[in-house]
């Protein structure tokens, strides 16, 4: 089996495994937490879908596309969210279906029972004479439901339909749970799992009621479920079920031993009493602090209701809100933990009336107050001191079928039992709350929309950055070929010149050598370089030109074609050179000397090849720089958009929202100017009496302060820090772009400067031969000397600029990975077919290992030293110089070049120098690729961290501020309704405000 088939099998296997896990998760819902079940189903479904997506991409053979890989990330997230919400929808739909079908079955069973009972009641004689179900008339005329209603599709639905018991542990909820399990057991009698699950559910309720001292209120047989384990033992059991049954039996044994022991309850009662007193003391202290703050605000309103003073009263509402919520939570906690202790209600009910303005809830709890012998004390605590009066009536008990009935939870189903005035007051209060909260919710909605747009644009910016990074990385990879094209062409021109000399001198050995080298050059140009040029510069026309020699006339025409066409023509000329056979008897050297294909290379080697094909590297570099310039401007645009959204969110939070709430506070508190100072004094005295009664009865210092109370002094600091973090992420998401853009441009400048040395060195090598050849058919007198001197000057200048950065870019010192080549001896190869191990060092012509492995800069200096000595020797006429016009002269010159020590040393050093330069250039390209890859990862990490942080800020900071203001608005409304009805009825304007929630014009 090959690799492709293995991949195909793996994709199929992974896809089906994860989809099976997703199906199992959806069907069984194994965890109690719906969020965990949603998350697991989303993960399984997304992974399974991704495997199938990968399989489809693999079959369509699109797996090499980068956009497919990028899209897969968003595809994964989309499927995850779809799975998350679908599992939530499926769970709720299944539970609702179970409840609906169970209710239908109960109703039908009740109808059947009621029908039988009525017949027995109203027609007893007929029932005595004849059974109703045997009556011919009933058999022929009446209709009955034939099909039994199946409540559950599988026994797992029975279990997760009963999970409400984890949040609601009321006895009614327990009875409903038992009935659901009984229905499930009747439907799935042979499923041992269901018996075990039912036992653990019932046992958990028994444990809960026992720990909360509620078990003694009910019949113990109600919680007896041991028979379920006995039934389960008779059914088929696996290892897991046996373990669970063994665990259940151990629990049953423990409970039996506990029942046999004598409970010493006195110690527990003492501990509970101490705990109760501590909680009660804390709750009453908060209660008193709330009364003090309300009295303080009334006192301020009595002193002044001028606009400039009312503006400052908003902080009092915030404090009242904090004390309200804290004391309310504390009282509720006491009622939950100590439901049998009713004395706390003597403090809780006045708190609901005097602080919370919740007369409806106070009415509900008033029915639970036990009688006391001291009626005066009872009256002083239960009464709201003429603020509101209501009759204490026995409240109808809540329905036993209620699924959500919890002790002391709010249940407005009893509103019909309230007084008319309380119901009216509650309606006015709810209307006012709705009116004041509605603008806050609108403001919150605008803030959330801006936040959502911020996150979306933040993600889009990251996606754009990554896409542009991928494009730049691809362009940088193309530089692998662009940087060596001109050097390779110069090397090909040298080989073409050498093979032409071999043909003219009939040197078969060198002819074969250079023919092989030209064939290798042809393969490289034709298979690699031409594809790179076609891909990047297909229709590009360079600004420079090439010479096209014709016959014996060297400069007949000029070539101005697109660079791809010129490259193909170069390859055609190259193929002609190595396919050219040796001279036959009818040919002479002029057939080679003036051959246009050969002369094409030597003529254009002067500088035309460098200028013309050097634009490949320039164009590629400019393309990459243009890409980063475009990305730079995109980053600025995105940063501006994100900054505007952040400013919009900040304006909504700091200005618009604050202005809105302050205006509401101001208008509401200004309405108290309608209340006379005498009435205000009466209310203040009333609250002062309440505080004195509470402090005296509970032995609390009236001047005590709640040290643990905090009013979120650092709320504004948290908000400011949140926006600072938001702006930091706006800046950070653009940092990778700016950083990589700057570094890439500098590295490309260094790469361009370094790669120029390749073609210069090959040009020097070629023109050392031309200095001796002195071919007057191509060069004017002493032109090769001038060319080689110019090349030496360019190389020396290049080396100096690379060392000092005078060309306007960085130096190699900024790249530690290259320092080894610059400072240590060694041999380097990348593209060359021969390795360093195959080098043959020969001291006869000066090519020693010490010389050949010098660091590249020192090696180039040594090489230039030998070249300059060679030029001096030529000028001193130490070399034979003959006209390049006949075979004999060319033979003498060619043999001199092949056998001279300088040329042998030059050919040996050239491979080491070019190898080191190519190695350095490759390291620079790798640096660029790694840098872009790292910045892609950094950008993705910043996006993930940023989005998580922004969601965190939105949910836990910004939304909390809005929720806090909603609570303060409710506290404000409750404060407004604390005015006694006797006073309200005397102030028409204030009464109108309470009824209409409309402010008077000022």
UniProtKB/TrEMBL annotation:
The keyword Membrane applies. Keywords: Membrane, Transmembrane, Transmembrane helix. The chain crosses the membrane at residues 9-26, 41-60, 67-86, 449-472, 630-654, 717-738, 942-962. This is Uncharacterized protein. It comes from Neocallimastix californiae.
């Amino acid at each position: 089996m090959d690799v492709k088939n293995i991949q195909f099998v793996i994709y199929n296997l992974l896809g089906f495994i994860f989809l099976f896990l997703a199906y199992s998760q959806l069907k069984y819902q194994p965890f109690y937490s719906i969020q965990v079940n949603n998350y697991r189903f989303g993960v399984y479904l997304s992974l399974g879908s991704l495997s199938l997506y990968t399989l489809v991409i693999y079959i369509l053979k699109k797996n090499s596309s980068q956009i497919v890989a990028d899209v897969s990330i968003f595809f994964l997230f989309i499927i995850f969210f779809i799975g998350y919400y679908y599992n939530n929808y499926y769970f709720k739909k299944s539970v609702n279906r179970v409840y609906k079908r169970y209710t239908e079955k109960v109703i039908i069973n009740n109808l059947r029972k009621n029908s039988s009972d009525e017949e027995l009641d109203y027609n007893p004689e007929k029932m005595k004479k004849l059974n109703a179900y045997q009556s011919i008339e009933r058999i022929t005329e009446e209709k009955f439901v034939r099909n039994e209603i199946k409540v559950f599709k599988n026994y797992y639905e029975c279990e997760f339909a009963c999970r409400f018991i984890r949040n609601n542990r009321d006895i009614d909820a327990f009875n409903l749970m038992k009935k659901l399990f009984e229905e499930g057991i009747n439907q799935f009698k042979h499923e041992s799992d269901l018996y075990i699950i039912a036992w653990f559910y019932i046992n958990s309720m028994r444990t809960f009621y026992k720990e909360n001292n509620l078990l003694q209120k009910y019949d113990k047989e109600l919680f007896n479920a041991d028979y379920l384990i006995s039934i389960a033992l008779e059914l088929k059991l696996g290892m897991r079920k046996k373990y669970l049954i063994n665990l259940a039996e151990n629990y049953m044994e423990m409970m039996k031993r506990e029942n046999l022991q004598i409970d010493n309850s006195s110690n527990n009662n003492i501990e509970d009493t101490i705990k109760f007193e501590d909680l009660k003391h804390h709750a009453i202290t908060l209660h008193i602090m709330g009364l003090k703050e309300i009295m303080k605000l009334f006192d301020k309103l009595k002193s002044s209701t001028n606009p400039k003073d009312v503006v400052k009263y908003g902080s009092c509402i915030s404090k009242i809100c904090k004390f309200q919520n804290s004391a309310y939570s504390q009282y509720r906690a006491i009622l939950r933990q100590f439901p049998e202790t009713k004395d706390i209600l003597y403090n809780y009910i006045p708190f609901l009336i005097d602080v919370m303005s919740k007369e409806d809830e106070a009415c509900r709890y008033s029915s639970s107050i036990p009688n006391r012998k001291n009626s005066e004390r009872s009256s002083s605590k239960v009464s709201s001191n003429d603020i509101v009066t209501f009759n204490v009536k026995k409240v109808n008990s809540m329905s036993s079928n209620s699924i959500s009935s919890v002790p002391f939870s709010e249940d407005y189903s009893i509103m019909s039992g309230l007084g008319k005035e309380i119901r009216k007051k509650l309606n006015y209060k709810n209307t006012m709350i709705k009116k004041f909260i509605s603008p806050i919710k609108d403001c919150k909605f605008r803030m959330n929309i801006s936040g959502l747009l911020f996150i979306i644009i933040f993600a889009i910016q990251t996606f754009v950055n990554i896409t542009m990074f991928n494009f730049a990385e691809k362009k940088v990879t193309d530089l692998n070929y662009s940087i060596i094209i001109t050097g390779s062409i110069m090397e090909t021109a040298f080989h073409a010149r050498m093979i032409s000399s071999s043909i003219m001198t009939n040197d078969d050995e060198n002819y074969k050598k250079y023919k092989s080298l030209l064939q290798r050059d042809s393969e490289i140009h034709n298979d690699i370089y031409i594809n790179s040029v076609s891909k990047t510069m297909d229709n590009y026309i360079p600004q420079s030109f090439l010479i096209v020699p014709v016959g014996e006339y060297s400069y007949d025409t000029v070539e101005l074609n697109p660079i791809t066409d010129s490259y193909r023509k170069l390859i055609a000329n190259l193929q002609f050179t190595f396919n050219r056979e040796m001279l036959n008897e009818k040919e002479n050297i002029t057939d080679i000397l003036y051959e246009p294909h050969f002369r094409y290379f030597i003529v254009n080697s002067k500088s035309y090849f460098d200028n013309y094909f050097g634009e490949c590297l320039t164009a590629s570099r400019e393309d990459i720089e243009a890409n980063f310039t475009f990305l730079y401007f995109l980053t600025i645009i995105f940063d501006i958009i994100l900054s505007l959204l952040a400013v919009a969110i900040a304006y909504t939070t700091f200005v618009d929202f604050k202005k809105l709430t302050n205006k509401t506070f101001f208008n509401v508190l200004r309405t108290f100017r309608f209340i006379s100072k005498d009435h205000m004094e009466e209310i203040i005295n009333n609250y002062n009496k309440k505080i004195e009664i509470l402090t005296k009865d509970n032995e609390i210092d009236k001047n005590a302060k709640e040290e643990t109370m905090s009013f979120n002094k650092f709320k504004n600091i948290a908000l400011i820090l949140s926006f600072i973090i938001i702006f930091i992420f706006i800046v950070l998401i653009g940092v990778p772009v700016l950083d990589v853009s700057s570094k890439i441009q500098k590295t490309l400048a260094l790469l361009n400067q370094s790669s120029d040395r390749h073609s210069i060195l090959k040009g020097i090598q070629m023109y050392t031969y031309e200095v001796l050849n002195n071919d007057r058919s191509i060069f004017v007198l002493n032109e090769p000397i001038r060319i080689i001197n110019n090349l030496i000057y360019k190389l020396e200048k290049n080396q100096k600029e690379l060392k000092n950065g005078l060309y306007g870019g960085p130096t190699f010192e900024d790249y530690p990975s290259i320092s080894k080549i610059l400072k240590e001896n060694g041999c380097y190869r990348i593209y060359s077919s021969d390795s360093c191990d195959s080098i043959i060092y020969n001291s006869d012509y000066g090519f020693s290992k010490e010389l050949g492995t010098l660091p590249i800069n020192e090696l180039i200096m040594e090489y230039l030293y030998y070249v300059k000595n060679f030029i001096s020797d030529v000028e001193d006429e130490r070399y034979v110089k003959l006209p390049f016009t006949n075979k004999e002269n060319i033979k003498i010159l060619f043999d001199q070049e092949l056998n001279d020590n300088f040329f042998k040393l030059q050919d040996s050093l050239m491979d080491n120098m070019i190898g080191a330069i190519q190695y350095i250039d490759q390291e620079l390209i790798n640096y660029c690729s790694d840098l872009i890859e790292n910045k892609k990862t950094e950008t993705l990490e910043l996006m993930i961290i940023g989005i998580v942080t922004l969601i965190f800020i939105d949910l836990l900071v910004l939304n909390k501020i809005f929720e806090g203001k909603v609570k303060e608005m409710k506290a404000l409304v409750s404060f407004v309704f604390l005015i006694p009805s006797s006073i309200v009825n005397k102030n028409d304007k204030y009464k109108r405000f309470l009824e209409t929630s409309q402010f008077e014009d000022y």
